Amino acid sequence: MGIEAPQSEKITLETKHQENKSMTSNANHAPRTKVNLLMLAYIAFVTLGLPSGLLGVAWPTMRKDFALPLDAMGFLLVSSTVGYMLSSFFIARLINRFGIGPLLICSSLFSAIASFGYTIAPAWSVIIALGVLGGFGSGVMDAGLNTYLAAEYNQGQMQWLHASFGMGATIGPIMMTAGLARFASWRPGYIFVGSVMVLMTACFLFTLSAWKRPQKPSVETAETDDSERGLMDYQTSLWKTLLRPITWVSIVMFLLYTGAELTLGNWTYTLFTEGRGISPQLAGLWAGGFWATFTIGRVLAGLYAQRVRLNTLMLGGMALALVGAVLFWWNPLPLVSVLGVFLTGFAMAPIFPGLVSSTSQRVGPQHAANTIGIQISAAGLGGALLPSLAGILARRVSLETIPVMLSVSLLGLLMLYFFSLRAKRQEKSSPEI
After folding, report:
1. Helices 334-348 and 401-428: angle between axes, nearest 10 degrees
2. Using CA atoms, how far apart are residues 253 and 36, in angstroms rounded to an integer?
3. Cα–Cα distance between 55 and 47 in angstroms, integer?
4. What is the number of domains present in the chain?
5. Cα–Cα dist 137/83, whole Å
6. Is 24 inside any structural domain?
7. Any idea of the CA torsion for 340, 343, 345, 348, to the nearest 10 degrees?
8. Which residues, including other chains, have CB under 8 Å from residue 64's CB and lie 6 or more apart?
9. I want to staple 58 with a disulfide (CB 3.0 to 4.6 A). Which of 48, 186, 387, 403 is the partner?
């Protein structure tokens, strides 16, 4: 005959059993949730890339509709950059204050409003104003998801995030070319993007509770334990981050990189059609081909990121991109020029995500979230400043100045990366002040 355990012990055992069951369930649920959020982040970056590929193809028709000069694209690029820089520069503070989930809902909603607004804008000035709102939404999504993945995922997954951007940027020109051929209008392309952004808003709203919020450590924990803190958990002063020279090296690198990428992305179609006499249909495919090779490069970088040293990947990409830019500039035959564009796209692919994912190594974990936001903000500035300058030079000198600017930008990027490696080695050999 067995001896019954006391009732209090039974309750204790049952409680422990339920706790263990709950912990097991949560442990099984957490990886699945993390994968789901990663997939949603990839889809979000596809939608983020769509407008980047649209504008370059839409521009010749858009400027005719509004009777604009060739370099007026710069006004839209500048206005969208104002919003983009405002949100991305302060992304660490915004995440700390609101959490990444609510920010992503707002970002996709703002982008949807801007895209739909472009199609019904009665004047060019209205489109410029809407560019600020669209830029703000893009900056939140770009800097927010970059910060989130840098904190929660590995370098290969960061490469695939940016490969997703390349997919969107590849689809954009092809979709806009098809829309122009069928409807003779640039507006259907932006209606499509706005519709996709509405769907993304619904997805972010549905998954709101799953996005990790920053921890609020106590003073004692903040002072004594860094091992449990993620990149989004630090509350380092922006001013302190900006006082570090390596931060400014990163700022200029991102400015040059994105300036080069978007100079090529926005002006290739115009250069081919208005400068080199290529048919619009073929030029649209070639412009899309730049983004296609760009996307292939990022997918391959995601596959091999853990097998190839980061510095080898970055230096090889920068050097090969410079070779492609020189071929595009040289242009002895259209085939050589197109090869240069495709080679540049493929080689540039791993650079941006590699620079983002290595931010913590470059500046330290306590400065990483601030620096990622500042870098993304600088990328937005470069994406407006250099393509706008290219437009001014194209109008006043020649469209052939575009590949020259591209080559100079990539050469400057390569030199600065060498400098950053040297600075990193010097910082390792001396304690931080």
Report:
1. 30
2. 32
3. 14
4. 1
5. 8
6. no
7. -120
8. none
9. 186
In a domain, 31, yes or no: no
C-alpha–C-alpha distance, residues 382 and 418, integer Å: 20
3-state secondary structure of 223: helix
pLDDT tens-digit readout, 341-360: 999 999 998 999 889 888 88
Q: What CATH number corresponds to the domain at position 59?
A: 1.20.1250.20
Answer yes or no: is 8 within a domain. Answer: no
In a domain, 1, yes or no: no
What residue type is assigned to position 185 of the chain?
A: S
Give the side-chain half-sphere CA count within 13 A for 246.
Answer: 25
Instruction: Kindly report the pTM of this predicted structure.
Output: 0.72
Determine contact, residues 116/168, Cβ cutoff 8 Å.
Answer: no
pLDDT in tens, 122-174: 999 999 999 999 999 999 999 899 888 888 887 788 888 888 887 887 788 88
pLDDT tens for each residue of 87-102: 888 888 888 888 899 9
- Name the CA dihedral angle for 228, 233, 239, 243, rounded to a multiple of 10 degrees: 40
Among all chains, which residue has been given the structure tokens 């050589």?
Answer: 336
Residue 303 has phi, psi (to 5 degrees) of -70, -35
